[in-house]
Each structure stands twice: as structure tokens, then as C-alpha cells.
Design brief:
Number of domains: 1
Distance between the termini: 174 Å
Helix content: over 70%
Oligomer: single chain
Number of helices: 5
Radius of gyration: 39 Å
Strand content: under 5%
Order of helices and strands: HHHHH
Structural class: mainly alpha
Length: 203
């Protein structure tokens, strides 16, 4: 008596075995990727942001110090060191300085978030490649190359001018105050009672 369907069972078994092997290869390839990308942890992303903070804050502080010094010289030159103009200008400069520090912190967070997004995007692409090829060696080499690229040193562009025109108009203000003093003095002389002689002439 003949048996039918044996060839079909063998083909199905071969297909299952082939798929099992492929899945093992994919897991091995994905494992190589995960192992290589372990370096990209939370401290790594924080350090990306801190690198920009360490780069930018000294520039902000230096520009602020120079701007404040220039403003103080201009105020002193105009005789406005203890004036309301000085208080307003110095207050404005302090406000701008605080805003620049906040901007640096925001940019630092942005660098950390961008690094995280780049790592996730790169890993997803590598996993997709590993799923398609099942080649652990190829995936491992590709993961190493990507990890070296993503973990490379960062470069930043120098900050532009942050505190411009902080002393603008100081000379005008000083001249206006001087003109006011002149006008006040002139008015006082103009309305000063005329001096009369105390001598009485008898006729």
C-alpha cells in the first residue's frame, strides 16, 4: 500500500527549519546591534547637552563682562553713573544676560534630544537591515561603524554678538541732562529779582 503526502510534509518541515534558522540569525544580528549600542545610555545624552553648555557659557559670561564694562565706562563718561539711566541700562543688561543663559540651557537640551533621536533612527535602520539579511557579522560591523559615528566628538560654532548697543544713546542722555541744567540755570537768572540801590536821594 502506497503512502501519499510524504513529500509535502518534508517540504513543510524544511521550510520551518529554514525559518527557524533565519530567526536565529536575525536574533544574533540584532543582539550584536544591541550590544554595540549599549553605550548610548542616559548619561551619554546628558553629556551631549553638557558639552554645549561647557562650550557656550564661558562665551556668554565673557561677552556679558565686556558689555557691562563698556556700559559702565559710557555711564561714567556721561556723568550718569548714579542716574536712573544707569539703573535702567544695567537692569536691561542683567535681564538679557539671564535670557542668554536660559537660551544656552534650551539649546543644550536640544542637543541631547537630537542625539537620542539620531541613535534611535540609526538603530532602527540597522535592525531593519538585520531582519532582511540575517547576517550577524554584517550587522555587527555596521553597528560598530554607526556607533563610532554617533559617539564622535561634537563641534559647535562660536556664538555671535549677544549684547549689542548696550551703551547706545548714553551720550545723548548726558547731553540732554547738561542742556536741562543749562536751561534751569538760565531760567533762574532770568527770573531773579533785579537788585535795587538802597541809597535814598533827598530833594
Amino acid at each position: 500500500m502506497c503512502s501519499f503526502g510524504g513529500g509535502g510534509n518534508t517540504a513543510a518541515s524544511d521550510a520551518r527549519a529554514s525559518e527557524d534558522t533565519r530567526q536565529q540569525d536575525v536574533r544574533a544580528a540584532t543582539g550584536r546591534i544591541d550590544e554595540t549600542f549599549q553605550r548610548f545610555d542616559e548619561p551619554f545624552f546628558q553629556n551631549r547637552g553638557q558639552a554645549f553648555t561647557d562650550f557656550a557659557n564661558p562665551q556668554v559670561n565673557d561677552q556679558y563682562a565686556r558689555a557691562r564694562q563698556g556700559l559702565m565706562f559710557a555711564l561714567a563718561d556721561g556723568g550718569l553713573t548714579r542716574s536712573s539711566v544707569a539703573a535702567q541700562r544695567l537692569g536691561d543688561l542683567e535681564r538679557d544676560y539671564g535670557q542668554q543663559k536660559i537660551a544656552v540651557a534650551d539649546q543644550a537640551r536640544g542637543y541631547g534630544q537630537q542625539a537620542r533621536a539620531d541613535v534611535e533612527q540609526s538603530r532602527a535602520g540597522l535592525v531593519q537591515q538585520a531582519t532582511a539579511t540575517g547576517d550577524a557579522a554584517l550587522s555587527g560591523n555596521a553597528a560598530m561603524n554607526e556607533a563610532n559615528r554617533l559617539g564622535g566628538a561634537q563641534t559647535f560654532s562660536p556664538l555671535g554678538a549677544l549684547f549689542q548697543n548696550v551703551a547706545a544713546g548714553i551720550g545723548v542722555s548726558a547731553n540732554a541732562r547738561a542742556a536741562d541744567r543749562v536751561r534751569e540755570a538760565s531760567g533762574a537768572r532770568l527770573f531773579q529779582p533785579a537788585q535795587t540801590s538802597g541809597r535814598v536821594v533827598n530833594r
